[in-house]
């Protein structure tokens, strides 16, 4: 009896994975996973990793770009303003310290 229950659970899991693969495109963006409904059911494209995509890649796949944009998902690394501010602050501190040393001499 235990084997029959195990077999039923296993078949249910395999069927569920098959249905999800047939109906949805699994998109991974970093550590997050999203499921995009396919227009027509097919096993053509099942999984897609967009972690390392550039602007060109997003431009070549407008449906995927629109789906991710509708979810409010942006590329990692687009926080360049924060990075630039940190670099500018550190450069300003270094220039201030150099000016102080020059005024002492």
Mass-distribution shape: elongated
Number of strands: 3
Note the total helix count: 4
What is the succession of H and E elements?
Answer: HEEEHHH
In the sheet with the most strands, the strands line up as 2-1-3
Portion in beta strands: 5-15%
Number of spatially distinct domains:
2
Low-confidence sequence ranges: none
Rg: 25 Å
The CA-CA distance between the termini, in Å, is 90 Å
Helical coverage, percent range: 55-70%
Characterize the main sheet: 3 strands, mixed
Report mean pLDDT, rounded to a whole number. 83
- Category from helices, strands and their pairing: alpha+beta
Structure in a nutshell:
The chain has helices at 2-23, 55-60, 62-70, 80-104, and strands at residues 24-29, 32-37, 47-49. The chain has a 3-stranded mixed sheet. The chain is α+β, with helices and mostly antiparallel strands.
List keywords for this structure.
alpha+beta; 105 residues
Secondary structure: elements and pairs:
Layout: H1 2-23, E1 24-29, E2 32-37, E3 47-49, H2 55-60, H3 62-70, H4 80-104
Parallel strand pairs: 1-3
Antiparallel strand pairs: 1-2
């Amino acid at each position: 009896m235990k084997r029959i229950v195990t077999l039923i659970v296993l078949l249910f899991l395999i069927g569920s994975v098959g249905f999800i693969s047939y109906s949805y495109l699994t998109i991974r963006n970093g550590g997050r996973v999203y499921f995009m409904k396919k227009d027509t059911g097919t096993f053509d494209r099942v999984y897609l990793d967009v972690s390392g995509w550039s602007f060109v890649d997003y431009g070549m796949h407008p449906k995927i770009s629109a789906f991710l944009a509708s979810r409010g998902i942006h590329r990692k690394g687009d926080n360049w303003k924060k990075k630039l501010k940190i670099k500018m602050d550190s450069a300003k501190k270094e220039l201030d310290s150099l000016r102080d040393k020059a005024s002492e001499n």
